[in-house]
Design goal:
The chain is mostly helical and 327 residues long. The chain has 2 domains: 100 residues, Tyrosine recombinase, N-terminal domain (DNA polymerase, domain 1, Orthogonal Bundle), CATH 1.10.150; 182 residues, Intergrase catalytic core (hpI Integrase, Chain A), CATH 1.10.443. Helices cover 54% and strands 4% of the residues. It has a 3-stranded antiparallel β-sheet with strand order 1-2-3, covered by helices on one side. The protein is globular. The model has no long low-confidence stretch (mean pLDDT 86).
Length: 327
Amino acid sequence: MLLAAQDAFFMARRPRKDSPHTTAAYRRDLGGVTSLLALSSGRSVAELTIGDVTAPALRAAFGEFADGHAKTSVARAWSTWNQFMTFCVADGFVEGNPMGAVTRPKAPPSSPKPLRGEDTPERLLAAAAAGARKARDPWPERDVLVIALGLVCGLRSAEVRALRRDSVVGRPGEQRLHVRGKGSRERSIPIESPLERLIGAYLGSCESRFPNRRLGSGTPLLLDHRGQPIGRGALDYLVKTTYLWAGIRDQVPTGANLHALRHTFATRLAEDGANAAEIMALLGHANLNTSQNYIEATGKEQRAAAAGNRTYRALSSLDSDSPAVPG
């Protein structure tokens, strides 16, 4: 049965120690296309066999899948199915991998999406610290810490939610943030005294808000208003409404939320001279090329090349008081 082969695939991947996020994404990709295979065959998912996974059937299923998903999602699903079918070949379930007959979309090149505006990050932090975000139960100590974790540590949403109180390690003045990122890769980010103070103020506010709750070292760092670990939806809403009340919503790239803060962190690192290896270590990238994108996006080399255009010398020699050329 197809489902049994998929279970065997995940069992074989256990030594890789994939993160729960990665495993869930793989299951969604396999499940989405499997449902379409079942629909086209007129049978239930449980009735499908590995022999039903033919090149024509997969082409039709991926065609349906592509109609409702972005290029990046289709490319990721293609990769998941290619790995699954490669496993099936290796374990003797099928003789060949049919994915070679399924067109893989070319994903658009990714580019950083930092906040726009030179002083936008500073305005955002100031607004969050001042309690600009209007809520029934304002909690500026928490709001500003969330924004800071994105802007000065470059954390992803899942990484923020995974932080524990004991993720902050070291003596005052020499503290570091221990982060578990994608693929269960761990990294340690140095933090400076301003962020140490923000963390201290936030922890103090937790003690005041939840005096009867035991907040031990293993407790999640970021809490909601009930004292529970902050959820993904609540975190997204917190960031979006902070943008709104800070008056910078038009400075946030379309489709970006907390990730815009991470991209701002990385872009500023590149602008201030950090190399790709340093950016890779601080952001937890698996590929050096991803880190290199931020350096290229700053455009320093391109700007220097453009500035060398000798026609600029002619422009510089023009009299600034000369009349404008009619349009």
